[in-house]
Write the structure tokens for this entry.
Amino acid sequence: MSAQGEDLGALLARVALKERAAFSALYSAHGAKLFGICLRLLQDRTEAEDALQDVFVKIWMNADRYVPEVASPAAWLNTVARNLCIDRLRARKGGGVEAEVLEALPSLEPTPEAEAIRASEGRRIDDCMGKLEGVRAEAVRRAYVEGESYLELAERFEVPLNTMRSWLRRSLISLRECLGDA
């Protein structure tokens, strides 16, 4: 998984905790792409804008349902947008969309090749995480997978807040170097 994917996963974790700043950052980072999906499927700019708003309401309400082991954060967001647009297409047609229309929609599911690459990247990340000191690896997992704040981590590990920030920054630098070497 790329560093961008990790950042997106952390944003989703924070959105699940109803952090407005994370939601705003998520919208800024991925709103344009999700709008593109809505526009491509609905083929109407006004309806795509309305759909995008509904997509982000669904993300806000359901971010706690995102499971990192099932899909990448971007795939989950894309699926939320795609499913909402398909529902709108069905409603537009009076409850049913012709099979040909649905078959023509590009699948957002990862290809077998993409799945293999993702699995390989996951093993690389696990290997690099294994090279971190135990408590620092745990702090990285809790911060960027589970979405714990710096303050929560500092309290959990009984270290000053600035020490926790340094741990995480240095750990991410180490991970970046390790992943760059692999």
